[in-house]
Structures are given as structure tokens and as C-alpha cells.
């Protein structure tokens, strides 16, 4: 008997007391099926040993599928038992609904197990599963009620003007559905491809990102073209759109197109990789993400800078890890002219040794960089093997060790001094122009003042 006829018979039998037993059996089967599935899921979560963790990974998603599967099994058993005593039209109508639910959830569970169990791909599959399940249930309900053929005929006879032609509303809806489904599948496949590529350790990180971006763009393009052809649209009309798009890119979107092209150049030539510490103009930090339009640069203080890819192609980029990750860090100080450099410089060379993250090879060194007014300017240099973690910590620790030497008097820092000889000469010449009585009266004071300043 067709399902639509079953629906009509069930409406006729709605006043039959036997229908109450079928309704009770339906409620019991649904409650028992989902209840048993919940108990199985909770029992898996309570297991704490290693084997239990492996079982949760393999069977955690099964708990979501077990609900409709157990319900279908219980409904089938109830139908076999009750049909010996009465008609079971309600169970015959309810069984296809739960079978469709079980099939949909089982299918998508297998997809998640085969391609992705977590992350963006898993979320995309769950969203697509909900949309697909909702659509399938609506179609099944319309088919059970016998309304679906009438709706299809009405949609097919309703014509809509599309340009110079007319198309039926059914064809338009089919085109929209095909576009949505194919786009969801393309996005899911692109995310699955990206997740697979990110786990290929033998491939360079930039090449993995580039292949993922190109693969996703190609899948979306194929999905759009294929869905348009399914909708009955002539693809030759896209040539006009492609020409207009090319003109727009050439005139009004030069910088945007340049950034996108630069992004693919960076990814394919591998000039930058995720994790590289770089410096560009006034921006310094570690490359945390390379997108097709911009690159994210994370500095040592945690701030993130979005650099257009065009700057990385046309500007001078200091990449500290292309050939060698070792970076020289420096701290400067000025020691007094009374210091003996033969003693001070070897003493300063020993201070970076033993500091965390400071390399022993190349060894730390001290350079005499300048003679300033306050004393000798010295530069203490040492190398770090992990510049992406910042230089502030090791420099601070080295400065603290130098401070300890200053505090004990082993190193004497330079300080500003004042030479008063020019001041004394200027004061003497000024006082010589005063009257003799005032000059004699003040000469002793001036000399005394000059002597006092010389002492100071």
C-alpha cells in the first residue's frame, strides 16, 4: 500500500481505540531508543582508562546515531507484534520517518569518521546534516500526506520571466537547491582538503597553505559553474561578466589584486613561512598566519599586525630564519675614562654566559663602539637561537648581572662632568671692565667663587 494511502487510512482509523496502542508503542519506542543511547554515551564518558579513551574516540559519535537506530529497531519489533492483533497503520507511517533520520545520521557519521572528526570540517558537516535532514523530513512528510504531487504540478505550471525567456518556478527552485547543495559540498571538500594538507609534515608549510587556498577556490568555482549548468543557464553569458570583472580589477582594484597575487607569490616561492621572525620597516614579530591578501605578524608583546602582502613583495624584509635563526642581541653601557678596558671588556664578556636562551656558540663579545663625553661606550653582544620568543628577557637578565658588577665597584660607569676653566676666564674678563674700587672689592669673591666651582 502506498504511503499516501496509509496516511488516508490512518485518518479514517483515528477514532479506533486500537490506535491508542500504536501511539503508546510509538512513544515507548522513541523514549526507550533515545534513553538507551544516552545511557551508552554516559557509560563511555565515565570510563577513564586508556582503553576507555580510545573507545570514546571511536564510539563517541555513535551515541548520536544510536538513538534513531534503536528507535527503528524497537518500532519494527512493535509493528511485528501488534500486527497479529490489529492494524498498524500509524507505525507504518512513523517507521519511514525514523528510518530516514537513522540513514541521514549514519551517513554523516561515516563522513566525519572518514574525513574529519573535529574542527571546521566537523562543524560544516553538522550544519549540512541539519539542513539536509530538515529538507528530507519535509519532503517525506509532503509525500506521506499526498500533497507533494500537487505542489510539484503547481510549481511546474507557474512561469517566471527571466530575461528574454520564461522559466518555471520548479526549475528555479531546483537551481537554487543545486547551487546551495553544491556550494556546501565544495566548502566541505575544501575544508577537508585543507585539514588533510595541514597534517602532511613532509610538505613545506607555505606550500600546504597555498595548495589549500587554490584547492578551495577551484572547488568553489567548479561548484558554481556546475550548479549554473544544472539550473539551465547558458554559461556563455558569463563572458560579459568576466570582461567587466577584468576591467574592474584593472582599474579600481589594482591594490587588492596586487595583494592577492603577492600572497600567492609568497606562498609558492616559500620566501616566508609560518613562525619566521621578520622585520619590515617599523614592524617586527613572528609570522603567525599567511592569507591570500594579508599576512598576520605577531609581535613579542602579543599584538598582531596585518601586513598587506604587497609590502612583503616590494619592501625590504629582514627574515631572521631563512638561512640561520641565530640573532644577535646587544646592550650598551658607558664606562668611565678611568676604567682599564683590558680588565673591563673580558669581565663583561662573561656576563651573558649561563643566561637562559643565550647560545654558547657564537660566543658573547664586547665591542668598543665610540668615545663619548662621559667615557668609553661599550656594546655587549650575544646570540639567541629562538628570536621568535623575543629578546627582552635575556637582555634584562644580562643587564642585572652588569648592575651587580657596578654595585660591587668592579665596573665604574661614566657620568657627566663640568669643566669650569672657561667659566672662570669669562667671569674674570667681565669683572675687569668694572671700576677699580669695585674690582678690588669683588676680585677676592670672584676668585673664591671660581675656586669653589673648581672644587665642585
TrEMBL record:
Residue span, Mechanosensitive ion channel MscS domain: 256-321
Membrane topology: Multi-pass membrane protein
Subcellular location: Cell membrane
Pfam families: MS_channel_2nd
Keyword annotations: Cell membrane, Membrane, Transmembrane, Transmembrane helix
InterPro entries from the UniProt entry: LSM_dom_sf, MscS-like_channel, MscS_beta-dom_sf, MscS_channel_2nd, MscS_channel_C_sf, MscS_channel_TM-2
Transmembrane annotation, as ranges: 20-45, 57-78, 90-111, 131-152, 172-193, 214-231
GO cellular component: plasma membrane
Primary location recorded for the protein, binned into one broad class: membrane
A GO molecular-function annotation: mechanosensitive monoatomic ion channel activity
Keyword Transmembrane helix found: yes
Sequence segments annotated as region (Disordered): 434-456
UniProt record similarity statement: Belongs to the MscS (TC 1.A.23) family.
UniProt protein name: Small-conductance mechanosensitive channel
Organism from which the protein derives: Massilia aurea
Lineage: Bacteria, Pseudomonadati, Pseudomonadota, Betaproteobacteria, Burkholderiales
Amino acid at each position: 500500500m502506498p504511503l499516501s494511502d496509509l496516511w488516508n487510512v490512518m485518518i479514517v482509523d483515528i477514532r479506533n481505540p486500537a490506535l491508542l496502542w500504536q501511539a503508546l508503542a510509538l512513544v515507548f519506542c522513541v523514549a526507550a531508543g533515545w534513553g538507551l543511547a544516552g545511557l551508552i554515551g554516559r557509560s563511555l564518558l565515565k570510563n577513564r582508562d586508556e582503553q576507555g579513551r580510545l573507545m570514546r574516540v571511536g564510539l563517541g559519535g555513535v551515541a548520536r546515531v544510536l538513538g534513531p537506530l534503536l528507535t527503528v529497531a524497537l518500532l519494527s519489533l512493535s509493528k511485528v507484534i501488534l500486527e497479529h492483533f490489529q492494524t498498524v497503520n500509524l507505525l507504518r507511517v512513523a517507521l519511514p520517518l525514523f528510518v530516514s533520520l537513522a540513514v541521514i545520521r549514519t551517513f554523516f557519521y561515516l563522513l566525519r569518521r572518514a574525513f574529519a572528526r573535529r574542527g571546521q570540517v566537523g562543524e560544516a558537516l553538522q550544519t549540512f546534516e541539519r539542513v539536509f535532514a530538515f529538507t528530507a523530513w519535509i519532503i517525506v512528510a509532503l509525500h506521506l500526506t499526498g500533497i507533494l504531487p500537487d505542489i510539484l504540478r503547481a510549481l511546474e505550471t507557474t512561469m517566471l520571466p527571466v530575461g528574454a525567456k520564461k522559466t518555471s518556478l520548479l526549475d528555479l527552485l531546483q537551481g537554487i537547491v543545486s547551487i546551495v547543495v553544491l556550494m556546501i559540498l565544495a566548502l566541505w571538500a575544501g575544508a577537508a582538503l585543507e585539514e588533510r594538507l595541514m597534517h602532511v609534515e613532509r610538505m613545506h608549510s607555505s606550500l600546504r597553505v597555498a595548495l589549500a587556498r587554490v584547492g578551495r577556490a577551484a572547488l568553489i568555482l567548479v561548484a558554481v559553474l556546475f550548479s549554473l549548468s544544472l539550473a539551465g543557464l547558458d554559461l556563455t553569458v558569463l563572458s560579459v561578466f568576466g570582461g567587466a570583472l577584468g576591467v574592474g580589477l584593472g582599474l579600481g582594484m589594482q591594490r587588492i589584486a596586487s595583494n592577492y597575487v603577492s600572497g600567492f607569490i609568497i606562498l609558492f616561492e616559500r620566501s616566508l613561512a609560518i613562525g619566521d621572525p621578520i622585520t619590515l620597516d617599523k614592524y617586527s614579530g613572528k609570522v603567525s598566519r599567511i592569507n591570500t591578501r594579508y599576512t598576520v605578524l605577531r609581535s613579542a608583546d602579543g599584538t598582531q599586525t596585518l601586513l598587506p602582502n604587497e609590502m612583503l613583495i616590494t619592501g625590504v624584509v629582514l627574515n631572521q630564519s631563512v638561512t640561520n635563526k641565530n640573532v644577535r642581541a646587544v646592550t650598551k653601557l658607558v664606562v668611565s675614562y678611568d676604567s682599564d678596558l683590558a680588565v673591563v671588556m673580558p669581565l663583561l664578556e662573561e656576563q651573558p654566559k649561563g643566561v637562559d636562551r643565550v647560545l654558547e656558540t657564537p660566543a658573547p663579545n664586547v665591542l668598543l663602539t665610540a668615545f663619548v663625553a662621559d667615557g668609553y661606550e661599550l656594546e655587549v653582544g650575544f646570540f639567541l637561537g629562538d628570536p621568535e620568543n623575543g629578546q627582552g628577557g635575556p637582555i634584562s637578565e644580562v643587564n642585572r648581572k652588569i648592575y651587580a658588577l657596578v654595585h660591587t665597584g668592579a665596573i665604574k660607569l661614566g657620568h657627566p662632568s663640568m669643566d669650569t676653566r672657561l667659566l672662570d676666564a669669562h667671569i674674570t674678563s667681565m669683572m675687569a671692565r668694572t671700576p677699580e674700587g669695585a674690582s678690588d672689592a669683588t676680585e677676592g669673591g670672584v676668585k673664591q667663587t671660581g675656586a669653589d666651582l673648581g672644587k665642585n
